[in-house]
Amino acid sequence: MSEDIKIAELRKNVKHFIAVLSGKGGVGKTTVAVNLSTALAENGYKVGLLDLDIHGPDVVRMLGGNAYPTMGEDERIVPALILPNLKALSISMLVEEGKPIIWRGPLKHTAIKQFLGDTDWGELDFLIFDLPPGTGDEALSLFQVLGTIDGVIIVTTPQKVALDDVRRAIAFVQTMNQRVLGVVENMSYMRCKDEIVYPFGTGGAELLAKEFNIPVLGKIPMDPKALELLDEGKPITLYYRESEIERAFRELAENVARAAEA
Ligand SMILES: Nc1ncnc2c1ncn2[C@@H]1O[C@H](COP(=O)(O)OP(=O)(O)O)[C@@H](O)[C@H]1O
Ligand SMILES: [Mg+2]
User: Fold this and answer.
1) Which of 216, 227, 220 is closest to 246 using CA atoms?
2) Continuous segment of H or E residues that includes residue 168
3) Which atom of ligand 1 is nearest to the CA of 27?
4) Has 99 been labeled as part of a binding site?
5) Ligand 2 centroid, distance to 121 Cα (angstroms)
6) C or N: which end of the chain has fewer Cβ atoms within 10 Å?
7) CATH classification of the domain holding 179
8) Entry's InterPro entries (predicted)?
9) Residue 119 carries which DSSP code?
């Protein structure tokens, strides 16, 4: 089957393609991609999660590890089944643990083509992409292989210093003729007993929203217990019920579904 036919098939089977991007690392892209995916899956959507952070693939660790893809009869990759409604695929499932992945652009491009065209994703409502930070090869390859997607979610933290990098990421997405779905402000605030504190300041997301005329899709609090759970591979929406951060992810999932369907 030609590459174009494979991608056309994928586009026919998947209702919405959503990428998660940020200006820089460590702001919570993978956290957002994973918990958005579990929240959507719990809401009854069929979800796929593709880890496209080839050099820092963290999706599997945050999902609890030991899930493996298989090879289908037609020699296509069958993604690992995480929940009844959630499939995931990451390069970390295919290489030896702890080994660095030293790949240049063309090799990454080939891998991304296979993750899209040679993978049996089945019918999905959402295919979510966890990208590395910034404007590198992975996002370029994704847009090149898939064409126009439903939207890119930009993850940021509130401090103004981070904003220059975020602006570059947004400009990159727009230059690629892709739609920015909105911004998610992670580590927005922290609740200490009855007091709310703002370790990274406030106002960053609103500033961006106004500047680029894009919605704020969610504000996720900082929560040390959440960090522990994420480290243990326990998604917040499954293992930290009735918490403020869980509610924040559910609200984000609703906003993303609404924005994608609009
Ligand atoms: N809202 C949050 N509260 C507490 N810890 C968080 C939160 N968001 C992310 N983290 C932690 O911060 C670290 C970086 O997050 P990660 O999602 O890996 O960022 P990125 O993918 O952007 O590099 C991880 O250890 C994660 O568990
Ligand atoms: Mg990450």
Assistant:
1) 220
2) helix 163-175
3) 22
4) no
5) 22
6) C
7) 3.40.50.300
8) Mrp/NBP35_ATP-bd, NUBPL-like, P-loop_NTPase, YlxH/NBP35
9) B
Residues 178-234 have pLDDT tens digits of 999 999 999 999 998 889 999 888 888 999 999 999 999 999 999 999 999 999 999
Residue 144 token pair: 């090149």
Cβ–ligand 1 contact at 154 (below 6 Å): no
CA-atom Rg of the chain in angstroms:
17
Nearest ligand, CA 32? 1
Number of domains in the chain: 1
Q: Which domain holds residue 69?
A: 3-261
Q: Please write down the HEC assignment for all residues of 8-71.
A: HHHHHHEEEEEEEEECCCCCCHHHHHHHHHHHHHHCCCCEEEEECCCCCCCHHHHHCCCCCCEE
Burial category of 258 from C-beta neighbours within 10 Å (exposed 0-12, middle 13-18, buried 19 and up): exposed
182 is in an annotated binding site: no
Residue 161's Cβ-count burial label (10 Å; 0-12, 13-18, 19+) is exposed
Q: Does 30 count as an annotated binding residue?
A: yes
> 253: closest CA among 153, 121, 146?
153
Residue 65: both structure tokens together: 């590890």
How far is Cα 219 from Cα 233, in angstroms, rounded to an integer?
22
User: pLDDT tens, 128-181?
Assistant: 999 999 888 999 999 999 999 999 999 999 987 778 899 999 999 999 999 999
